């Protein structure tokens, strides 16, 4: 069954955007120069897990995520903290770090029960977009000794400004280009928080918009990298899910 070129283009954008997946400031209390980092075991207990956030599936297997900083980096040194945050890696030189993938769970739509042959072209396009309209968020935690978390947060905040014009990014062997960063209003969670939108080049001249928030909770840094393929394809707005930030903040108190 033939479909319109618009659907083929949408599919191409979706596949291109998937490579990105596998791939704000407010003052507060300082971490303190005598702060102690959480151990790896403590950090893994502190990150959101299955059942912690209603409507989201949390995958701690790490199968979709970069294994190390060598798999997610940038040739622009000052922009690397942002690249690391987008890959679920520690933005700074942490004592411990861990990450999970949180995916929104949705109820099936009316068209989902129909076979492809029974869908009109409009229904097909809507169903295709709806199926991909899921918030997928890489949530990372990293913990630091002394004032490491404060310095790491500052490096991220500074990078959002200095890298506003974009930077090259390599994610799991795939070269990408972030073309623009725009500061967004952060959640205000934790002691300090910063948020930004990242616009990246995709195939055939298309662009993809993703969202990032970085929050400092004492000696621990939480990073959130969210993409929604369906909304990206239709140029509809979305953001880092507040439910994830709230749930993670609660576990770090």
What does this structure look like?
This protein has a 9-stranded antiparallel beta sheet, sandwiched between helices. Helix 1 (5-21) packs parallel to helix 4. Helices cover 29% and strands 27% of the residues. The chain is an alpha+beta fold. It contains 7 helices and 9 strands, in the order ααββαβαβαβββββαα.
Features:
single chain; 253 residues; alpha+beta; globular
Total beta-strand segments: 9
- Oligomerization status of the protein chains: single chain
Q: Kindly state the percentage of residues in helix.
A: 25-40%
Helix and strand sequence: HHEEHEHEHEEEEEHH
* Rg (CA only): 19 Å
Order of adjacent strands in the largest pleated sheet = 1-3-4-9-8-7-6-5-2
Shape: globular
Compute the average pLDDT: 84
Number of helices: 7
Helix-strand category: alpha+beta
Distance between the termini: 54 Å
Biggest beta-sheet profile: 9 strands, antiparallel
Report low-confidence residues grouped into runs of 5 or more.
1-28
Structural topology:
Layout: H1 5-21, H2 40-46, E1 56-59, E2 72-73, H3 80-86, E3 96-104, H4 121-132, E4 136-143, H5 148-162, E5 167-171, E6 174-184, E7 192-201, E8 207-217, E9 220-227, H6 229-233, H7 242-251
Antiparallel strand pairs: 1-3, 2-5, 3-4, 4-9, 5-6, 6-7, 7-8, 8-9
